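Thread: "does anyone have the structure for this chain?"

Original post by V.I.:
We have the sequence but no experimental structure in hand. Need at least a predicted one for the grant figures.
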Amino acid sequence: MALRSRNKISATFSMSSMTDLVFLLLIFFMLTSTLVHPQAIKLLLPQSKTQTAAKPLTTVSITKDLRYYVESKRVRFNEIETLLQQKLGQNPDIYISLHVDETVPMKEVVKVMNIAKRNKYKLILATRP
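Reply from O.Q.:
Generated one for you, tokens below.
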């Protein structure tokens, strides 16, 4: 007597649900990657061949239309020194990263460098490779 099983197990695998997940993840990462720095300041940094490995504690930025920023907060030039003193104190081992658009006159860069020198902060000029 030949007994046959009535339930046959299918050995095929459906990839449609996995491709749906991959596309959803792709869309998610594409959307979130554009929102990483929504308040970033647009600067075209000067070019350099060497880079430093020092980690700055804060950043000062000057845009091409001479707007000053401490981190992402817009400030007037005369407020930069007091804001840095409040934030950093008198610690001489603190690095400040200076981000300056390449079209900014050198006179404006030197003004910020003088603030750092008066307070004995170490200044790093940010460049693009």
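V.I.: this helps a lot. The chain has three helices and five strands.
O.Q.: and The longest helix spans residues 16-34.
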